[in-house]
Every structure is written in C-alpha cells, then in structure tokens.
C-alpha cells in the first residue's frame, strides 16, 4: 500500500508539473492530455480508499482531489497571465480545499488529525506554487531542487496516510506490527 500510494502521489506531482509546463509553453494538446491524466490519477488515489471507507467516501475524496488540482491549475494559468489577483484567488481556493481535505481525512480516520493533514497539504501546495513560479521564470536550477523536495514531501503524505490506515485497520495488515 505504501508503494502504491507513493507511486500515485508521485504521478500526481508529475501530471500537475506537466499542466504547469504546458500552460507556460502554451502547448494546448499536451495540456489537454495532462489535465485528463491529473483527473485519472485523482480517481486512482481515491479508489485506494474505497475498500476502507466505501465508494461514497472514495467519490468524495475524488471530488476534493479534482478541486485541489483545479486550484493549482488556476494558479498556473494566473501566473502565465501575470494576474496577481487571480493568483491570490487560486491560493485562497487551494487553502479552502486543503481544509476540506483535512476535514475529510480526520473525519474518516482518527489517526489523521486535521491540523497534521492540513499542514501536509499546505506544504504540498507551497511546493506546487513555487515550482510554477520557477517554470514561468525559466529558473530550472531551482525548479529541479523544488521538484526533489516535492517528491520527498508526497512520500511523507503517502506514508502518513498508509500508517493511519494500518493503525485504523490492523486486521487488514496482519504482517505489520503497528505501535
């Protein structure tokens, strides 16, 4: 499960980076493909939780993840357009969505405190916004550093979610001894 979630969250970063890059280069065909891939990835992430929390919760998470990606895409578009007020609005939408994601996870799993989840996703968004700025400015040295930090951070998200599932459903993970 840990490997699957790490892979899916890495894919999430990859496709969101492609959305930002394709916005920057105005590559509409690639952008369309990347946007579809972001949505498919969100569906895959949400489906991981269906066996634990049911299909309705999986669909709720999918909706939240689509909103999450939409706020990042809106920030990318606003950055390319040089529109500070739209950037601020996208960041506000992202912060609101982060609260919704935190409420979702803390609501289904007592081992996922709302503040911890909020902090994880707030840092994730900060990385995304920084990467978008660096792509726009063609600051590829810093973008490469940000990418590495982003990848490590999504592993922290995946590992936190995995550990919480293991603690909440120990019978589904019989070979793991959770403290």
Describe the structure.
There is one protein chain. By secondary structure, this protein is mostly helical. Helix content is 85%, strand content 0%. The protein contains seven helices and no strands. The chain has helices at residues 2-25, 28-48, 50-53, 55-81, 84-108, 114-136, 140-168. It is elongated, with a radius of gyration of 16 Å. The model has no long low-confidence stretch (mean pLDDT 96).
Compact overview of the structure:
The protein has helices at 2-25, 28-48, 50-53, 55-81, 84-108, 114-136, 140-168. By secondary structure, the protein is mostly helical.
Main sheet record: none
User: How many strands in all?
Assistant: 0
Please report which band the strand proportion falls in: under 5%, 5-15%, 15-25%, 25-35%, 35-45% or over 45%.
Answer: under 5%
Kindly provide the radius of gyration, computed on alpha-carbon positions and rounded to a whole number of angstroms: 16 Å
Mean pLDDT: 96
Please state the overall shape, judged from the principal axes of the Cα atoms: elongated
Terminal residue distance:
18 Å
Structural class: mainly alpha
Number of helices: 7
Low-confidence stretches: none
Order of helical and strand elements: HHHHHHH
Residues in helices, as a percent range = over 70%
Q: How are the elements arranged and paired?
A:
Elements: H1 2-25, H2 28-48, H3 50-53, H4 55-81, H5 84-108, H6 114-136, H7 140-168
Helix pairs in contact: 1-2, 1-4, 1-6, 1-7, 2-4, 4-5, 4-6, 5-6, 6-7
């Amino acid at each position: 499960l840990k490997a699957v979630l790490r892979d899916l969250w890495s894919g999430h970063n990859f496709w969101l980076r492609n959305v930002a890059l394709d916005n920057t280069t105005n590559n509409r065909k690639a952008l369309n493909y990347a946007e579809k891939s972001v949505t498919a990835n969100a569906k895959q992430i949400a489906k991981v939780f269906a066996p634990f929390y049911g299909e309705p919760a999986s669909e709720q998470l999918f909706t939240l993840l689509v909103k999450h990606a939409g706020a990042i895409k809106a920030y990318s578009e606003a950055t390319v357009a040089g529109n500070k007020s739209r950037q601020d609005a996208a960041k506000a939408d992202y912060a609101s969505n982060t609260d919704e994601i935190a409420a979702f996870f803390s609501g289904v799993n007592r081992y996922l405190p709302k503040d911890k989840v909020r902090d994880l996703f707030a840092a994730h968004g900060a990385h995304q916004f920084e990467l978008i700025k660096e792509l726009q400015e063609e600051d590829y040295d810093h973008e490469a550093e940000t990418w590495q930090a982003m990848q490590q951070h999504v592993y922290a998200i995946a590992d936190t979610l995995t550990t919480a599932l293991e603690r909440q459903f120990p019978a589904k993970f019989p070979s793991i001894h959770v403290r």
